[in-house]
């Protein structure tokens, strides 16, 4: 399985239409990959809170349309990062979009843990409520977003739903980038899974972004890591490595505190 993480520059000042065109071009360049991943809130910026309401769009809006076409043209499974979703009933959500190679939007995930400590996302966006997994011929993917990475119980729930690979788009700031790499490795070791963390770069809302998108194997080994500029990180993965790791070191069977399997969306 070949995965490509598109670490985009999401600096302030670029119109959303221009950024969508750039994202489509980058996805098209990944023909030959099986899975392509974009960062969190890349159309507007993860810290551009004042722009979120005006940038909000429905699940059949311009970003979803562009990403559907790009997935189909490239022939890839596409985790299109996340958008500011405008629910028909009014709230906005930080919502990830997952497309099949034929362009169908097969899964969405509304971010459960909102960052901000009574500011920003924590007060401007509604919280998701459901864990989401997506089955592909390359294995079962567990979907999470950025700040979720700090909450291991979410990932135990995804594990119980069958996740073998965790996909985590992010807008993780440069000042805490060491936490990003540490937590990505921790989640991989805990669940004995691959972790694909796609961060952005540049600066938005006055916050420099950290880059360093990362791919971690089920033993916690860093298989690939980007720098701090815009780039595409591509790595070949062996999906069978998850089962092999769990068989060689069967720590998960010694769990005492159980987790109720989550509903699927």
What does this protein look like?
Helices cover 26% and strands 26% of the residues. It has one domain: Carbon-nitrogen hydrolase (Nitrilase/N-carbamoyl-D-aminoacid amidohydrolase, 4-Layer Sandwich), CATH 3.60.110.10. The two termini are 25 Å apart. By secondary structure, it is α/β, with parallel strands linked by helices. The mean pLDDT is 96. A 6-stranded mixed beta sheet has the order 5-4-3-2-1-14. Strands 6-7-8-9-12-13 form a 6-stranded mixed beta sheet, with helices on one face.
Low-pLDDT segments = none
Summarize the helix and strand pattern as letters.
Answer: EHEHHEEEHEEHEHEEEEEEH
Mean pLDDT: 96
Structure summary, number of beta strands: 14
Helix content: 25-40%
CATH class: Alpha Beta
- Counting helices, strands and paired strands, the structural category is alpha/beta
Strand order of the largest sheet: 5-4-3-2-1-14
What's the CATH topology name?
Answer: Nitrilase/N-carbamoyl-D-aminoacid amidohydrolase
- What general outline do the C-alpha atoms trace? globular
User: Which architecture name does CATH use?
Assistant: 4-Layer Sandwich
Radius of gyration: 17 Å
Q: What's the story with the biggest beta sheet?
A: 6 strands, mixed
Estimate what percentage of residues fall within beta strands: 25-35%
Number of domains: 1
Straight-line distance between termini:
25 Å
Please tally the helical runs, counting DSSP H or I stretches of 4 or more residues. 7
Determine the CATH superfamily: Carbon-nitrogen hydrolase
């Amino acid at each position: 399985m070949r995965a490509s993480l598109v670490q985009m520059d999401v600096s302030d000042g670029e119109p959303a239409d221009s950024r969508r065109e750039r994202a489509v071009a980058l996805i098209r360049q990944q023909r030959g990959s099986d899975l392509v991943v974009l960062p969190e809130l890349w159309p507007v910026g993860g810290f551009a809170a004042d722009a979120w309401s005006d940038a909000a769009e429905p699940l059949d809006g311009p970003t979803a349309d562009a990403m559907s076409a790009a997935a189909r043209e490239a022939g890839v499974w596409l985790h299109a990062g996340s958008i500011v979703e405008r629910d028909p009933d009014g709230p906005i959500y930080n919502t990830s979009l997952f497309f099949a190679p034929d362009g169908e939007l097969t899964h969405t995930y509304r971010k459960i843990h909102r960052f901000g400590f009574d500011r920003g996302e924590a007060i401007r966006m509604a919280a998701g409520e459901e864990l989401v997994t997506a089955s592909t011929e390359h294995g079962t993917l567990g979907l999470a977003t950025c700040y979720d990475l700090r909450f291991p119980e979410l990932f135990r729930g995804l594990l119980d739903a069958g996740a073998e690979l965790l996909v985590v788009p992010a807008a993780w700031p440069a000042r805490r980038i060491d936490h990003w790499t540490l937590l990505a490795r921790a989640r991989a070791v805990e669940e004995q899974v691959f972790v694909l963390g796609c961060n952005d770069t540049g600066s938005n809302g006055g916050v420099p972004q950290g880059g360093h998108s990362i791919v971690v194997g089920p033993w916690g080994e860093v298989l690939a890591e980007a720098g701090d500029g815009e780039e595409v990180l591509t790595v070949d993965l062996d999906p069978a490595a998850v089962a092999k790791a769990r068989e060689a070191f069967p720590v998960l069977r010694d769990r005492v505190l159980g987790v109720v399997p989550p509903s699927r969306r």
